[in-house]
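Hi support team,

I submitted a single chain yesterday and got back a structure, but I'm not sure I'm reading the token output correctly. Could someone confirm the output below corresponds to the sequence I sent? I've pasted both exactly as they appear in my results page.

Thanks,
R.
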Amino acid sequence: MQELQVKPLKYEALNGLSSTQLKEHHDVLYAGYVKKLNEIRAKLAAADKSEANASYSLYGELKREETFTANGIRLHEAYFDNMGGDGIPDGAIQAMINEDFGSLDAWKEDITAAGIAARGWVITAFDLTDGHVYNYLCDTHNLGCIWNCVPLIVLDVYEHAYFIDYATARKKYIEVFLQNLDFTIANEAIARNNLIRLRTRV
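Hi R., thanks for writing in. Yes, this is the structure output for that exact sequence:
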């Protein structure tokens, strides 16, 4: 299996998020997950599957940490990718937000409240079950994830995402995140997954 590579940032700094904050988050924490998942998968290839046990086995522990680490990579890549814009939605994502939340301001209020309540992540996701958009929170990378959803917007609210620039002022950080959102990324996800068609069929 080919080793995973660190995906580079598409910007050095953002309005309200310093290069120091972003580099520590990306180059140390996210890159660390990439390195660790490569290590876990190498160990899984050599692990004795006959010893698998629900109480404890090396194979079981590696499989559990594989989910945490893999989600850590995917969530961080989505988080970094969906910043670098002007924070102004248009197209399909704007229409979906307006329909399901009533207005952009109502969605912002909801994602901000979820961001204050969450311990780790908030994900604006298209739910394939009913065709609507929700703000789901996940307390850790692999706890609270909702199956059968397509992530559209990903917000990291772990302290490491903002502490250098904002200390404990999480709400201010969330405001800055929203101002830097690149909604074209959400629109690309909607188009790539044919979500407009699926929305009308559910």
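A quick pointer for reading it: Helices lie at 19-46, 58-81, 91-101, 104-117, 163-166, 170-179, 183-192, 195-201. Let us know if anything else looks off.

Best,
Support desk
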